[in-house]
Design brief:
Strand 6, helix 9 and strand 7 form a beta-alpha-beta unit. The chain has four domains: 42 residues, no CATH class; 162 residues, Succinyl-CoA synthetase domains (Rossmann fold); 78 residues, ATP-grasp fold, A domain (Dna Ligase, domain 1), CATH 3.30.1490.20; 115 residues, ATP-grasp fold, B domain (D-amino Acid Aminotransferase, Chain A, domain 1), CATH 3.30.470.20. By secondary structure, the chain is of the alpha/beta class. Helix content is 42%, strand content 19%. The longest helix has 23 residues. The strands form four sheets. Strands 8, 13, 14, 15, 16, 17 and 18 form a seven-stranded antiparallel β-sheet that branches. It has a five-stranded parallel β-sheet with strand order 4-3-5-6-7, with helices on both faces. It is built from 17 helices and 18 strands.
């Protein structure tokens, strides 16, 4: 399915308001829903037609690796840049295949990839013999031909030659022309099962669409059920959530999330300095103190957080300080106490959350936590619920996903633990979609592989009646 979804920009949403305003909203959410269901988004009418042509003629590629066969070196360079810009790879062909290609090409040709056969060789040898060799590569998923369709007779001859190899070639074959194409020439290639593009950028976008849809099909086949919550547990948590106020503090939010299996560090709510000291004494290492108030959702800005505390005196003083700061920043706020919890072990800071979209309902969000969320806006969305396998795939959508694999000597993060938490949170949101407006777990510290994670902070905001 190919869809045109307008209203991606603020100006576009204003314009849409006078027509079908209800359909125009956040592009990130639209893209997440489209990705989840394998829907392709057209940027314009030409883009939609270009993608449709590719799907009408082409098999789905195994991956994103493209071989370019051309008689024009300049066009090969130009197209290579465009393919790379669309996230497509041009791997070097196997040595034995290069040798077989060079046996057909002049000594000054190139057979690595792009295969630049030169205009002379293409005229004498044609494309079909070169395709027969290149298609044997296990490194290539799509074969892209670049040539001229200005001479209809020559183009028809090349198309007839290719028709004999297209059917039993595993990879899709596509042609991009750098000249004006006659209708007869394009029809000849269409008869051979090869779509033709008169625009190099359009050709690159069409290949990208084939790759994206093939990957969706892989995800769909690997998709596992999101899991079901026992009815009794779902009802119990639903009743508690319904009875709660409009905003659930970290302690209250974690109490409900823990029922679903979300890991919770040892922590306690203290309502006096003495209780805080006693709670801290039962925990190993330094502790953090955080004011708990449904009226104070941004505790750090209110000065209502104290970190890295050791010793009775430090805990007692910090308790009094964070209470005073909270009361000063938010006079009249209801304060339930102070949460005492151990300082989390080092790891990768992530953010997990749920936000409600007016059209699609609850959406799971994952991103690099802390300052990365605000500065880089490196987040990915998915409709709820999702399973762990799909959660792992969603992590791959982050621009900074490689950070989780360990860079500059850092340990690999426990991706399976993070994926499990994402799946659990999405199931919680789906189970109670009628009650939840937002959920915020930030930060979530993901520890090295096998060491799990720590949910450092949590917040639930309920839907307004």
């Amino acid at each position: 399915m190919i869809i045109a979804k307008v209203g991606r920009s603020e100006a576009g949403r204003r314009a849409a308001a006078s027509h079908s305003g209800a359909l125009a909203h956040s592009g990130a959410v639209d893209d997440a829903v489209f990705r989840h269901y394998g829907i392709l988004r057209g940027e314009d009418l030409d883009h939609m037609l270009d993608m449709a042509a590719a799907f009408a003629f082409c098999k789905l590629p195994r991956g994103n690796r493209v071989a370019v066969i051309t008689g024009s070196g300049g066009s090969a360079v130009w197209m290579s840049d465009l393919l790379a810009a669309h996230g497509l790879e041009l791997p070097i062909l196997e040595e034995d295949l290069q040798q077989r290609l060079m046996a057909l090409l002049p000594s000054y040709a190139s057979a690595q990839n792009p295969v630049d056969g030169t205009a002379q060789a293409i005229h004498e040898v044609g494309y079909a013999k070169l395709v027969e060799i290149v298609r044997e590569s296990r490194r290539i998923d799509t074969i892209l031909l670049i040539g001229s369709l200005a001479n209809e007779a020559t183009a028809t001859q090349r198309a007839d030659e290719l028709a004999a190899v297209t059917g039993d070639t595993e990879q899709p074959i596509i042609l991009s022309t750098y000249t004006t194409a006659t209708p007869g020439a394009m029809a000849a290639f269409a008869e051979a099962g090869i779509p033709c593009y008169t625009s190099m950028p359009s050709c690159a976008r069409a290949i990208r669409a084939l790759v994206d849809y093939a990957r969706f099909q892989e995800r769909r086949r690997a998709r596992q059920p999101a899991g079901e919550t026992p009815p009794g547990l779902r009802q119990e948590v639903g009743r508690a959530l319904a009875a709660a106020g409009p905003v659930l503090t970290e302690a209250d939010a974690k109490a409900l999330l823990t029922c679903y299996g979300v890991p919770r560090p040892p922590e306690a709510v203290a309502r006096s300095a003495a209780e805080a000291v006693a709670a801290a004494a039962g925990m190993r290492g330094a502790v953090a103190l955080k004011v708990q108030s449904p009226d104070i959702t941004h505790k750090t800005e209110a000065g209502a957080v104290a970190l890295g505390l050791s010793g009775d005196g430090a805990v007692r003083e910090a308790y009094q300080r964070v209470i005073a700061s909270a009361e000063r920043a938010h006079p009249g706020a209801v304060i339930d106490g102070v949460l005492v919890q151990p300082m989390a072990r080092p790891g990768h800071e992530m953010i997990l959350g749920v936000t409600r979209d007016a059209t699609f309902g609850p959406m799971l969000m994952v991103g690099l936590g802390g300052i990365h969320v605000e500065v880089l806006a490196d987040v990915a969305f998915a409709p709820v619920p999702i399973g762990p396998a799909e959660a792992l795939s969603l992590l791959g959508e982050l621009k900074g996903a490689a950070l989780l694999d360990g860079v500059r000597g850092a340990a690999r993060a426990d991706r399976p633990a993070l994926a499990e938490l994402m799946a659990t949170l999405s199931r919680f949101a789906a189970d109670h979609a009628d009650l939840i407006e937002e959920i915020d777990l930030n930060p979530v510290i993901v520890h090295p592989q096998g060491a799990g994670l720590t949910v450092v902070d949590a917040l639930i905001v309920k839907r307004k009646p």
